[in-house]
Amino acid sequence: MNIDWGDLSSGRHVAGPQWDFAVRLLLVEDNRRLQVALRNSLIEAGYAVDVADDGEDGQALAEMTAYDVLVLDVMLPRRDGLQVCRELRRQGLRTPILVLTARDTVEDRVRGLDSGADDYLVKPFALAELLARLRALLRRDVPRKDSVLQVGDLVVDPATHFVERGRRRIDLTAREYALLEYFVRHADHLLPRQRLEEHVWSYDYEGGSNVVDVYVRRLRRKIDDPEPIKLFETVRGAGYRLRRPRP
Fold it and tell me: Considering Cα of 146, then 147, then 151, then 154, what sign does the dihedral take?
């Protein structure tokens, strides 16, 4: 399903990009209507999204979870977003932070950036601009986000989401791609189901289902089944591994 809404405060729509990197994102926003709209659109764009309603809960999640990017409102209950940002930076957190605010004076923008934010987006904004700013923040993590990845003859390009094995192009859904990229970045590592759930899906995903097994089967069907050399390995009772072929 394509996203096709833009300015969050009006009926004017612009097309938004469908999917970006395989990332886990924390959204801290107390406006329930905006929170739900943003969360749904970011998930539709391929992100694993956790949400918090206030600054204290948002800070706690950011401290205990390895997020790829934080989207942080300024005006929050219990602890405002700039306080959260300053405290996370004081603790040494280097995760990119995008601040959302209705305040648009130069002084407000300077205060936000001086608190440790990497970017500043004024409400109301278009979804397309938010996604573009997230892409820009994630591109700063070089070379991890931009380099072409390869395991044997399997090639994955995070910048374009192009996937091929040998000379055979492989078409994947957004969630299949997110899972594959995570496997490729952790090639030869045993990945328990819970770890895959936590990175590729969000905290409100109800564990215990077989969703990871279903998606791994889909990847095997597209990547391994046509090939004599198999890359995916099941470790019974423990999880899955993407193995580099041995010479």
Answer: positive
